[in-house]
Amino acid sequence: MNPLSSLSVLVAIVVLCLCSMPASGIIQEVTIRGSVTALDQTNNTLTIGYPQQYGCSYPATGSPVCSYTSLNIPALTGTVPGSIAYSIFKSGDPVVATSLGGAGGSWIGLAKLYGANPGEEYVTDIVGDTGTIPTPLIGDYALDVTTTPDCSACSGTTCTALSSDVKIMSSGTLVHEETLLPRQMLTYNGRNDGSSVAVTFVKGEASSTTCAGRTGMTGPQAVSVYIVNIVPPIGYGQNTPSPGEALTPLPPTIVTTAPVTTAKSGGLPIAVIGALGVLALVVAERKR
Predict the structure, then answer these.
(1) What pTM, to 2 d.p., does this model score?
(2) Vertex 134: Cα angle to 88 and 233 (nearest 5)
C-alpha cells in the first residue's frame, strides 16, 4: 500500500471513531469555596471573598484525593443562576459555587453551607445545577436528578428539558422518586426527625445523545436550574446521626405542585407551607 493510501485509511478510521463517540461537554467547570461578600441584584451578581478552588489528584492506587486550595485573589464575582438566590443567600454565608469556562463570571451552581470545619460541611440550600456541587447534603440526604430532552428543541449537544426525574435518597436508600415538569416542586417529609427536602425544577437542558442523529457531537454540557432546600433533623449538630445510620421512617408526606395549582386547605406540614412560599419567586425564573 502506498503512503497516500495509508493516509486515506488512517483518516477514515479517525472519522469513524469520532462518529461513534457520544456527545460530550467540553466547557471547564471550576468549583470555588468561600464566603459571600457582596450581592448586587441590579447587576445580577454574587461575589465570593477569599476563594479556594476545588481539585482532585489521582494516585496510582487508591481513591482520588480532593481538597480546596486558596487562590491568590481577594474575590470572585459571577452572575447568579436565578434571582431567588437573593432571597436565600446573604453576606457572610459560607458557600460553594461552580462556574463555567473559568473561575467566576457565571455561577451555574450556588450552595449554602452548614458547618465551619473542612470535612464537616454540609449543604442546606442550592440554586442552580445540583450536579456541580461536590459537598454532601445535610441530614444524610442525597439527590439524583436526570433531565429528559425535547428532541425537537436541540442545539448541538443540548436540548431543552421536557422534565426532570428527581430521586431522593435518605441514608443511601431511595425514599421517593418523582418526575417534575418545569416550575414544579416536590416536598418530601417522611422521617421521624423533623427533616424535609424541597426540590423545584425551574428549567433546564438535557443531553442530546438519546435523540436520533445527535451522536458524535462535542460541545457545551447540559445545565439546569433547581432550587433545593433541606430542613435538617431537629437538634442537628447536637445529636447528629452518623453517616449511613438508618432512621426509622414514618409514612411520608409528599407534595408535588406547580405555581398554577391551588393548594388544598387543611393542615400541611410546616416544611410544606414554607416550600410553597418559594413558588411565587419560581414563576419569574422560567421567564428569564
Answers:
(1) 0.76
(2) 55
Label residue 56 exposed, middle or buried (CB < 10 Å: 0-12, 13-18, 19+): exposed
Q: What is the pLDDT of residues 64-89, one digit of tens each?
A: 999 999 999 999 999 999 999 999 99
